[in-house]
Design a protein that fits this description.
The protein is mainly beta. It has one domain. The chain contains 2 helices and 8 strands. The strands form 2 sheets. The protein has a 4-stranded mixed β-sheet. Strand 4 and strand 5 form a beta hairpin. The N terminus is likely disordered.
Amino acid sequence: MNNISSPLAPYGSFKFIPLATKVGTDGKTVPSDIRCKKEIRLLSTLENGIKIYSFKYLWSEITFVGIMAQDLLAHPEWQKAVQIQANGLYAVDYAMLGLKMTSLDIWNKTGPESIKLGSGIPLLV
């Protein structure tokens, strides 16, 4: 795996691994590891402190809106939402946080409401 340079350092050490639950991809989690993202931009911080970013996965040109697993690992109240996939990357169970990932297009139309679980706003358009 290539090392990815990010303006969001100091996540290079990934010293949080023991705090996450080690499981495979179960279909409920979304890859949320900073190491698999590019063009990362902070969009907002929710009232509870969770930071919301726009980003592209290294393998895609679609711009998504979501969270970084490493941010969650830094806060005990959110750590249980983070899992380690079989490939060693972090994934997040968004539903445990009452959130969902969306696209930047939807975010630009509806704002923070678009990432709230149960908002009725489609995941992607």
